[in-house]
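User: Teach me something about this protein's shape.
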Amino acid sequence: MGSDLQTLDAAPSSLGPYRLEEVLGRGGMGEVYRAYDQRLDRRVAIKRIRRDKAAQSEARRRLRREARAAAALAHPSIVQVFDILETPDGDWIVMELIPGRTLADRLGAGPLEVSVAVGIARDLALGLAYAHARGFIHRDLKTENVMLAQSGGAKILDFGLAKNLEPDESTLTEDGRIVGTVRAMSPEQAMGLPLDGRSDLFSLGVLVYECLTARPLFQGESTAATLTRICQYEPEPLHRVNPEVPKALSRLVDRLLAKLPENRPASDEVLQRLESLGSDPARSLGISGEPTLDDDASQGALRRVRGHRAVSGVALLLLTAFGGWTLWEIAPAAGPHEMPRLPDDSPGDSHASFVEGMRLIEGFERPGDLDRAVNLFTELVEHEPTSASAHAGLAKAQWRKYRVTDDPRWLDNALLAARKAVELGEFVAFAHAVLGGVLLETQDLDAARASFETALRLDPTSIDAHLGVAMLHEMSGEIQSAEAAYRRALEVNPDHRFVLDALGTLLFKESRLDEAEVFFERSIEVAPENVFGYANLAGVHFMRDDLDRAASILQKGLEVRSHSYLYSNLGNIFFYQGRYEESIDPFKKAVELDHGSLNPVMWANLGDAYRWTPGHGDAMRAAYQRCIELLRGRLEKSPENPDLQAQLALYLARKGDWQDALEIAERLETSEELGASILHNLAETYEQSDQRGRALAMLDRALERGYPLSSVLREPELDRLRADPGFEALARRYGDEPAS
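Assistant: First, the predicted structure itself:
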């Protein structure tokens, strides 16, 4: 490998902890290499200035500026920069390695489908909005600088021409020079005028046009001709060039390509328009042919801690007190008796639309309801652009969409809409409560608390605000305060299904099964179509070792609607009955339905079923790996969440990564505030890692906190531990004789 590299512009074979492997590409500034980070065990991309340019001080300054700009930006739609190295041979930037290919390469095969183009545009708009909010513009957005990830999604490459909007004496444009790729720049950039984020939006319009026509929009025979066309030429509407393009998208592109920046739509409006076009966030980006990276490189990329979701520990799908049962822990939502109203002068049909949108959010588990709610509120915002409640309703629908898809783009949109709602309605409690809930997802707990407090000052009966306060306490481990806040919410509305489920779940995790059962039963009574109520109630009977009753309740839920939670928990019943092979099919069904593929617990369950069924070793490892990836993604956004940490330790141990599992478990076990389910997971982690003494100690703490001994007696993973004399002593202490 080293000798090969020396023939490629005499690059060294290693740079500090990085071992260079091969050249991925070359451009005007230099090469990009694939490399292996020996310190963190991951593949990375490393970019450097070409050796013949290394001596040029401006080139080096541009590279360093690229690193500073991009390192300040951490967003799923922007390639992450990890490190910068300065050597006698030149400067090097270490960045995220993205399996895939550039958008320019993809367009060589022809125009994109409309849904794919819209999805890419949405990814890029989210990344640009994030960068703009932090004072950066890209100034060189083009198809060559967009990477289509093999795993889905689009990422912005090369902030090498990014300019911080804050004053900076190191700027390279004080002489008014034009910097950027000519065909993609805005009119103001072409004329050397001051720029802001609206310049990037013009370039986004150029990019979308090219995606749907596969041809340059303003390209002339010379640079001067191209610049003239950018400033003077009005392109033909996109839907006339490509009849498959909806007129709504064509109009949006027309507005993005407005010659004057003030005539272009704002970033939040661009996002809302793209969302309303209904592209599928799980789309295929049309990446075909030979992949950019080999299998080993792809695995290296998978090993790094990654994530796009801002998880708040209040709405997690947890590995609960009896292994892999899936409880639905809700996020705040307005109930049937909390219906904020539009201003009194709003037309009647607008208020009716608002009520219908809230009803759709309330019944979000029905297929298609959330999409209809998003579309309805988008239209309502168009008709009532100054209505705080309309924007808050849109934020709530987008936020709920995020909760069921794990797609961070929905959360970004929700935050934009919620902030707009508060800006428009300083004294609208509903707007503050929704903003607080969205902020919980982003882990901005202090700001969320302030929003909830403001909402309660304005309206002491706000269910959203009471729920938010309860969940904030729960995230902080303040269980008694959380329970009190949930009960205050029930005083406002005793029949609020979301509060009933949330309080029942809290009590369930505290092993207060009789109390939890009351709330779950009431939830089903209030909302018989609520499949989550059936899943939760079945869990109570599962914990009591009444598997027949649990299965019966799940069957009633399946009569209402097929759902991943119900199938996953049905698989758990089969599993704990020793019917391991039979449990595979319901577990597989669970990861195929209702975004179950985004739930780490469901992948863990499937991995367990494969583990106990001979001949499924590869499938087992793949399922556990997917579970681990999802857990790490969630922990990236919620690093202090003990439930997630315990789950990650457990499944690392089951997969065989014992050293990593033990590091997490040892760090976690020192806390005195761990719940029974967390302690149980730590016990099994130690048992899987051949740490019997520590496993028994953790199990002792779990049983003391209320973990059912009956569950321990039937868990196949603890067969060997149950034969230990230490376990016999625990069984006697907590009231039962050990199973033979």
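Now, about its shape. The chain has a mean pLDDT of 79. DSSP finds 34 helices and eleven strands in the chain. If you'd like, I can walk through any region in more detail.
User: That's plenty for now, thanks!
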